[in-house]
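Weekly modeling sync, notes
Attendees: S.R. (lead), two postdocs, one rotation student

Agenda item 3: backlog of single-chain predictions. S.R. asked that every request posted to the team notebook include the full sequence so nobody has to chase files. The rotation student volunteered to paste the first one in as an example of the format we agreed on. Action items at the bottom.

Example entry:
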Amino acid sequence: MSFSVSILATGSELLDGRVVDTNSNFVARELSELGLKLRRVLTVDDDMSELVGGLSRLSEVSSIIITSGGLGPTSDDLTRDAVASFAGVGLFECPVALKHVEEFFAKRGRALDETNRRQAVMPVGSRIITNERGSAPGFITQGENGAIVCSLSGVPREFQQMFRSSVLPLIKQQCGDVPLIHRATFKLLGVPESSLAKVIEALKLPEDVVVSYRAAFPEVHLVLKSARADLTEFVDQARTALGRGNTYTEDPEIPFVGALQSALELKQLTIATAESCTGGMAAELLTRTPGSSRIFRGSVVAYHNDVKEQQLGVLASTLAQHGAVSAETVREMAQGVRDLLKSDIGVAISGVAGPDGGSDAKPVGTFFVGVSSPHGSFEQRCLYSNERQNVRVYASYVALDLVRRHVLGLPLPAGYPIWLAA
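Predicted structure, as returned to the notebook:
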C-alpha cells in the first residue's frame, strides 16, 4: 500500500448539520502543499462500534489516520476508548497530559474535577500531542496492523495547531519521496470566477501547470501549481493578464484586510468609517487583524438620517434633494467622519440592501461609497443584485478596496467593481 492519509471525523453535530467539518478541508489544503491528497474522509456518530469500525476500515487503505473530535470529558467523547480498542491496548492516565489539564484549569481559576481529569487519559503506548489552545491533549497511537492514529481535538483552532506542530512533521517523515509542488497565489476581489477563468485560459498555460480557483465570497483565489522548479514565466503572464492592482496580494497567508492595513501603515495613514446600510461591517473587517489600532480611528453607524445630520454634518438639503443613497450624501458622510474622528481618511457607505426600498433609479443592491482624504475625494456608485446580507458584505469589501486603491494610487478598471480583464 502506498502512503496515504485519511480522516475519521466524529460527532453527531457533523451528521445533523449543526457543525460544518472544516478540519478535513484544512488537512486537504495542508496536504496539497506536499503534493498529497486525502485518501478518505469518513464521518461517524459518537458510537463505539461506529468509531472502531471506522478506524478498521480506514486502516485498510491508510498509513496515517487522523481523528477529529471526541477528546472531551463527557460521556459521548469516545475517541480514546475507540482508539484503544482498535489498537488492542488498555487506557492509562498520562502524567504529562494531566499536568497540562491541571495547568489549563488553574490559569482560569477553575478547580479540576474527576470529569475533566478524563482528558488526561489515553491508550497505552501513545505519545502525547500538546494542545496549546485547549484543555484536551491529543495522542499518537500505533495500530496492530501498522496504521498510525493521530487523535486531535475537534475544535478548529486547536485542531490546526496540533496538526501543524505534531502530525504534519510525522507525515513529512513518513511520506517518502513525494515531488515538491510549487505554487503561486493571486487573491482578487470583484471579479466573477467564470470571468477570471476566461482570462487565465486565454494564456494557454502548459498542462503541467495546474490552475485552481477558490471562491471565498466576495473574493476569488487563483492558484497555479506545478512540480516545475521555476514558475516565474507563468506567474508573470498571469500577473499581467490580471492587471495592475486587481490582485490585492500574492501571499496566501495575508487576508484582504491585512493587505489594506499594510498599505495604510506604509503611508502612515489612519482611517474612520461612516456606515449606513452596512451597519458597522466595514469597521468589523478593519478590526479583525492584530495591530488594527495603528490605522483605525473608529466608526459611526449612521443608519437614520438624523444621525447623518447630527453626527456627521450631512446637510438636510442634501438629503432632501438627493436622498440618503447618493453620491452627494456619502461625500458629506466621509468628510464628516474624517473631521469628527480626526482620521486621515474617511470612507462612507450608504445603499439599498433590500429586500425592500428599491426604485427604478436606485434598485435593490445599489450602494454608494465616498472616500475623503488629504489627496482628494471621490464617490463610486455600484450595483450588486443579491440577498440583503450579501449586498452588505459586498459593499463593505468594495468600500475598503476603494480605499486600498486610493492609498496605493491604483487605477479603477472599467466596470469596477465587476471588472472584466478579458
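Discussion: group reviewed the output briefly. The radius of gyration is 26 Å.
Action items: rotation student to repeat for the remaining queue; S.R. to check formatting next week.
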